[in-house]
Amino acid sequence: MTSVRSLIRAAVAATALVCCLVEAAGAQQQGPPANGGRPRVFFDCQGPNCNSDYFRTEIPWVTWVRDPADAQVHVIVVSTSTGGGGRAYEMDFQGRNGLAGYSDHLVYTSQPTDTERETLDGMAHVLGLGLARVANAGGYRGIVRLEGVAQNGTRPSAGLVSAEEVQDPWNLWAFRLGGSGNYEGESTTENLRVNTSASASRVTPTWKLSYNGRVNFQRQDYELSDSTRLVVNRTDWNVDALSVYSFADRWSVGINANAARMTRYNQDFRASVAPAMEYSFFPYEEATRRSLTVYYEIGPTYRNYIAETIYEEMEELRWEESLQVRYSQREPWGDASVGLEGSHFLHDVNLYNVSLRGSLSVRVARGLSLDANANVSWVRDQLYLSAEDESDEEILLRLRQRGTDFTYGGSLGFSFQFGSIFNNVVNNRFRRSYRGGGWG
């Protein structure tokens, strides 16, 4: 009995010791910030121009940390394209650990003609303003100095700009031309790719107009094992047109049109016109943080085939309809998105396609994150499949789409980080090392 009581006393003492250690660790994390009393910041940015090294260099008067659990302010940055070809970067500042309850929101909009440096400078300026407001709300003193520059005594206006408010000779239209080429080869193979593109768009609070086209040429030349050569020349192109009208806060209607040539899918010419409608359960202004939409479209599609199909058709006109439900959310705990899409031909509802895809990134604990992606599709609508058998070369080079009943894929990963919580120092030496061809 005495030994049992001794074990119980030892267990109670050990438990009390662990509780004290945990409480002390928590007090250390919740206590005053290190490095001269500077707010601890976790920078959470995904997408273009999320150059954390640049912002840490430009804003040295805060303490950057590697894990959100150690931060007093969690900065979430998301971006979306603007009508003129620039990007709007939305920054949410959320307080934690002594600053709980603090919330702020700022927006920086880049111009389509801005260089990467100009965009980064603008983002750093707005990010610095937001962190200065955090420091002011948290009672931090003497860590930042504000300097202003007057320009003709005027202040830039904020918010949406319509065509009636400015003297715009382009009437809010934005155009873009692009092209690229790639050539690579070995002693037995050659591969040439040439891509060109053009687009025009006009975006206002009421209308969204987008038109773009693309031409892709590819030449593949292979020497086979019997010394013969396999030469493949393919030219694909597509033209897309989208017109959307916002007739209510959460309702939009539009027309989606497309014309294309897709050799891999046995279509020498394809054209479709589909009226569409979309409803957003959340305000569209919140789309960069959370979004739940239902999208429906219906319309005819004409196809002219390169080779006769398995249904003995060289051309056909069929009506199709599709329904899409999409949800996405980004919060301090991580990101999540899921989408369900279904479509079918009206002349035969047994010819359908249903796909489900989702992604999840969760911060499970301090320094530990889990990432998962998955997708699955049930395919019953491959009207375009050629009746001719595929050659081995076409199968290996994926020159022709093969018949299938389903497709699927997925990925799962994790990352775990531990050690120092501070992330202030930037060292740009040896940013990229080169190894010769022997490394593959």
Structure, described:
The protein has 440 residues and is an alpha+beta fold. Among the domains are: 34-138, Double Stranded RNA Binding Domain; 247-416, Porin (Beta Barrel), CATH 2.40.160. Helix content is 15%, strand content 47%. The protein has 5 helices and 17 strands. It has helices at residues 2-30, 34-37, 52-58, 116-138, 392-396; strands at 40-45, 63-64, 73-81, 87-95, 103-109, 173-185, 189-203, 207-223, 229-246, 251-262, 267-280, 290-305, 315-331, 334-345, 348-365, 368-379, 406-416. It has a 12-stranded antiparallel sheet, with no helix packed on it. A 5-stranded mixed sheet has the order 2-1-3-4-5, with helices on one face. Strand 6 and strand 7 form a beta hairpin. The N and C termini lie far apart (70 Å). Residues 14-36 and 153-160 have low confidence and may be disordered.
Defining traits:
alpha+beta; Double Stranded RNA Binding Domain; 47% strand; globular; 17 strands; five-stranded mixed sheet; Porin; 440 residues
Topology at a glance:
Blueprint: H1 2-30, H2 34-37, E1 40-45, H3 52-58, E2 63-64, E3 73-81, E4 87-95, E5 103-109, H4 116-138, E6 173-185, E7 189-203, E8 207-223, E9 229-246, E10 251-262, E11 267-280, E12 290-305, E13 315-331, E14 334-345, E15 348-365, E16 368-379, H5 392-396, E17 406-416
Parallel strand pairs: 1-2, 1-3
Antiparallel strand pairs: 3-4, 4-5, 6-7, 7-8, 8-9, 9-10, 10-11, 11-12, 12-13, 13-14, 14-15, 15-16, 16-17
In short:
The protein has 440 residues and is α+β, with helices and mostly antiparallel strands. It has helices at 2-30, 34-37, 52-58, 116-138, 392-396, and strands at residues 40-45, 63-64, 73-81, 87-95, 103-109, 173-185, 189-203, 207-223, 229-246, 251-262, 267-280, 290-305, 315-331, 334-345, 348-365, 368-379, 406-416. The N and C termini lie far apart (70 Å).
